[in-house]
Design goal:
mainly alpha; flat; 0% strand; NF1 protein
């Protein structure tokens, strides 16, 4: 059983309230609904008119991902204070790193942003890998400037490097 301090409960209450505000729906890519629950709990069985393509899909900006990740990190860190042996952040960081350094046009940019936001330490080797990814993205853009995936990858590496730079030794 989890015993949370009043401080942790307050962080959780404030976060839930914050995520329930319509202005935060955009961060999750669902700004065009009146209630997040409408999208979250709608099923094709109950509502036959709904199908995955029946609503206009919004893009999920990397800056939105950055904000969401930082908010989730705050929640996780608050909960971890009450659980002495908790390894959630280590596991999340390990998964983010795995996908950040693995080529996948859909996941890699997002994983790079998350890795940059949640890492508490970084090695020079990891920075080298991110710079290599940036280099490959730049090469790809030079070959064809219309390559959207390369532009997203470049943006993700810049966000990650910006977040990780303060963690490096002087």
């Amino acid at each position: 059983e989890l015993h949370s301090t009043e401080e942790t409960k307050q962080v959780l209450r404030l976060s839930l309230t914050e995520f329930s505000l319509p202005k935060f729906y955009l961060l999750f890519g669902i700004s065009k609904v009146k209630s997040a629950a409408v999208i979250a709990f709608r099923s094709s069985y109950r509502d036959r008119s709904f199908s995955p393509g029946s609503y206009e899909r919004e893009t999920f900006a990397l800056t939105s991902l950055e904000t969401v990740t930082e908010a989730l990190l705050e929640i996780m860190e608050a909960c971890m204070r009450d659980i002495p042996t908790c390894k959630w952040l280590d596991q999340w960081t390990e998964l983010a790193q795995k996908f950040a350094f693995q080529y996948n046009p859909s996941l890699q940019p997002r994983a790079l942003v998350v890795f940059g936001c949640i890492s508490k330490r970084v090695s020079h080797g990891q920075i080298k890998q991110i710079i290599r990814i940036l280099s490959k993205g730049l090469e790809s853009c030079l070959k064809g400037p219309d390559n959207y995936n390369s532009q997203v990858l470049i943006e993700a590496t810049v966000i990650a490097l910006t977040k990780l730079q303060p963690l490096l030794n002087k």
